[in-house]
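Q: Hi! First time doing this. I have a protein sequence and I read that you can turn it into a structure. Is that right? Here it is:
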Amino acid sequence: MDDGQADLTDEDSFDLDADRLREECGVFGIFGHPEAAAITALGLHALQHRGQEAAGIVAFDGQRYNSERRLGLVGDHFSKASTIDRLPGTAAIGHVRYSTTGETILRNVQPLFAELSSGGFAVAHNGNLTNGLTLRRELVREGALYQSTSDTEAILHLVARSRKPRITERFIDALRELEGAYSLVALTNKKLIGARDPLGIRPLVLGQLNGCYILASETCALDIIGAHFVRDIENGEIVVISEDGVESLHPFPRTPARPCIFEYIYFARPDSVVHGRSVYDVRKAMGAQLAREMPVDADVIVPVPDSGVPAGIGYAQTSGIPFELGIIRNHYVGRTFIQPTQTVRELGVRLKHNANRSVIEGKRVVLIDDSIVRGTTSVKIVQMIREAGAKEVHFRISSPPITHPDYYGIDTPERDKLLAATHTLEEMRQYIGCDSLAFLSVEGIYRAMGEQGRDPLRPQFTDHCFTGQYPTHLTDVSGETKTQLSLLAEAG
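A: Yes, that's right. Below is the predicted 3D structure, encoded as structure tokens:
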């Protein structure tokens, strides 16, 4: 146990995004549309929340593959007609990236592409391979020449080395070697292929636009282009889209799905539907359950924008305490706006959040947020609310304490940097500076999801950040080589 103080550097105090959980990426693919690249760019706009470091599109025009990969936001590069004109073709895949493995450099930007003996092959990946480093060492030892530091590149090498005659079979061959979380879209000369890992940790949906099939990380990407939702890709399923339609393959042992619960808590857009559940409705239900579990006598409910808003509404409706926008967020301050001066760093939180004094002053305030990671942002928010004249500040979190790091595509700190892993609840309260602090229970979050409770032997969701119960083997962490499929076979 430390002395109750988290590591708050000058840069952390300024860059509030450093204290948020971040997804690795989002993927999109379309087959058979005359404006495939333009449609893909629009889809990536809708998925921008899943990754803001880089974006890329690969399109196939029947003769050649055309690729545009850029650092920065989708709108900074792919809103220009000149860029889209360089991506002709009726099939395309795209990717937005926030890196959890590999540096932020252009050669790591996806989709990745390679010329194989069977023709071109491009792939984009949402998730993280927990044996990516092990695969890399083995492949390099056997002569592979890596062009990036991304774990996704292992897929290209594994497909290239497969002895199977057909590209789909070679792709499946490669997937058999992978461990961890993946939702993939791949493009070949004649096919668009989608795949989810055997547990379905990361989301992937199938849509349709004017007879053309689409793969995307979330339904909000279908909405933006006017496509309709067909269905979720199942865990362990591979879909092959061609001129003949959609073929569904299930090459792996069947096992119950365990989607990542953080898609509902934070990552997915509120207007998306994930596995039949409205993300917005689930977040409201989490807030309602939190109000039942952890009530407080107060005057006003104030969400930490934007992620705390739906839970704040749910808490307010259940508790009967008025809901107010007591914090106003400035959406026009990006992570790149970092000034070196201490004066600007000390302003910190006010660059993105400002207290709405008229609804806070003299009130007992309940702050609602979706999670606490390092706690540095929470300290600044509470301080700001007190300076705005709040009589009391009570913090309520619409998820359980994060006590374990993630290895499946969420950028979490090491365990000793997670506030809840190194502090008791009272120490956390003292550090953050609030009058009371409470979290939604693990059982409560399952009830908010519509479940009777959590099955301790086979949890319905991937919830290891709260429980430490990882759903797959962690080869790169443990050093033991054991495939995900063999683990699933043993579990079955």
